[in-house]
Amino acid sequence: MIDNKEKILSKDYFVEALLKGDDLIISEIYQRFFPKILQFVLLNKGTHAAAEDIFQESLLHIVIRVQKKSINIQSFEAYLFTVGKNMWRRELENQKKRVIKEEGYTLIDKDTNFAQFLIEHEQMELYREKFALLSDNCREILALFFNKVSYENIVEELSYATINTARQRIFKCKSKLVKFIKTDKRFKL
Amino acid sequence: MEFEEEDYNQIINYNLGNLSEAENIEIQKRMEVDKVFREEVLLYQKLPYAITEKGWPDWGHENNEQEIEKIKTLKRSELISNIESKIKSGGRQYFENQNKHRKVWRKYAVGLVAALIIVFVSIKIFNFNSLSGESLYAEYVDWENNLLSTTEQSNVENRELQGEQLFKKEEYKKAKIIFIDIIEKGKRQDSHTLMYLGASYLELEEYNDALQIFDQLLQQKSLNSNRAYWYKSMVYLKQGDISKAKEELLSLIKNKENFNYSKARELLKQLD
């Protein structure tokens, strides 16, 4: 249960403190929120140093998104953790590519990498926002489909007549989602 | 531009990896010459990552160079560079304090252990909540029927089956290792893996980890995500935290379709 103090704090308190560069509150941010990101990174093949880096970059991500006015935070803690998690997962994917491609891999400078991630995260948020606009049925069937549940199980779960019916429904829901995304002025590929 | 239904079927199958090698080559050639088609394929490729808890694929930023430069310029500006320094110094301060605390901890360890023994004895004598929580946990926990079995899942790998079997034999430590390994290798972070990992943590009394995993299950927003309410209530029951157990059960019963709805109502009556 979130008490009143946390409710008041979580909305703009931490964001404003970051923008002002408030040492005391930045330290509080570390105290409250770093352990969770640390645990996630360590549990996913990372190190303490990597977690520190991810945490700092995630805070900067929030600051720049606020400057760009392209952010809508409901909970600072939840948003920070989401950014940190996604940033680390992306880093793991990039590490895999470096191993596979070896000599053919072009290293990207840190700032370019940061900017690319920011654009990608903005787009993912847009996709999720549009996904939430779909009907319950569409969200349910796409959630099953994207989580690689087989057509047979989808038919059984949602009581469709045939696999073809399910396929058509999935196609229609996906098309709707794509249309929502593409017609938003924030969409970019 | 709208494509034909046949094109979309090809795109979906390409992204699912269902096409033959020849068909894949054909699609890739078309992507090289038809920019609009390529963009459609990339967009469809990214859709699953909008709602699953996975890292997304290589994005490709050919169209975003201007935007990237703007962001880089902003990041290197005086304002942001100052904030970055503050964040780094805030971090240094925090880690220095952590180290100091560790040294203080070692210094007073003996006294702390003695205090802990006193607290432990008090808890044992006076903590009825813990006792009743544990007895209710023993009554309601039912992993055999409350966890998805591999026979109910398609596309399950051998490692998951192995982990599940170890869990059923109550070899929770070994099961935990397998499921963590599955997650770390990035192969699967599906409901099945998360359920078993969370349950393993719970049985090993690693409660914070159990709760974190069940929270991840909840955040997945998949068909089985709502099971997390039940599992979390079990964690709190075992810990003797009756009020938090009740909170989870109250969340569970908000929707009649949620897993163990009737059991949750029954348990809530016992907890009142």
From TrEMBL, chain A:
Thylakoid among keywords: no
GO terms under biological process: DNA-templated transcription initiation
SUPFAM superfamilies per UniProt: Sigma2 domain of RNA polymerase sigma factors
UniProt keywords, alphabetically: DNA-binding, Sigma factor, Transcription, Transcription regulation
Family matches, as InterPro entries: RNA_pol_sigma-70-like (IPR039425), RNA_pol_sigma-70_dom (IPR014284), RNA_pol_sigma70_r2 (IPR007627), RNA_pol_sigma_r2 (IPR013325), WH-like_DNA-bd_sf (IPR036388)
Annotated GO MF terms: DNA binding; sigma factor activity
Residues of the RNA polymerase sigma-70 region domain: 30-97
Keyword Zinc-finger annotated: no
PANTHER family named in the record: RNA POLYMERASE ECF-TYPE SIGMA FACTO (PTHR43133), RNA POLYMERASE SIGMA FACTOR HI_1459-RELATED (PTHR43133:SF8)
Protein name: RNA polymerase sigma factor, sigma-70 family
Organism taxonomic ancestry: Bacteria, Pseudomonadati, Bacteroidota, Flavobacteriia, Flavobacteriales
From TrEMBL, chain B:
InterPro entries found in the cross-reference section: TPR-like_helical_dom_sf, TPR_rpt
Alphabetically ordered keywords of this record: Membrane, TPR repeat, Transmembrane, Transmembrane helix
Keyword Nucleotide-binding: no
Placement of TPR repeats on the sequence: 191-224
SUPFAM superfamilies in the cross-refs: TPR-like
Membrane-spanning intervals of the chain: 108-126
UniProt name for this protein: Tetratricopeptide repeat-containing protein
Species the sequence originates in: Aquimarina amphilecti
Taxonomic classification: Bacteria, Pseudomonadati, Bacteroidota, Flavobacteriia, Flavobacteriales
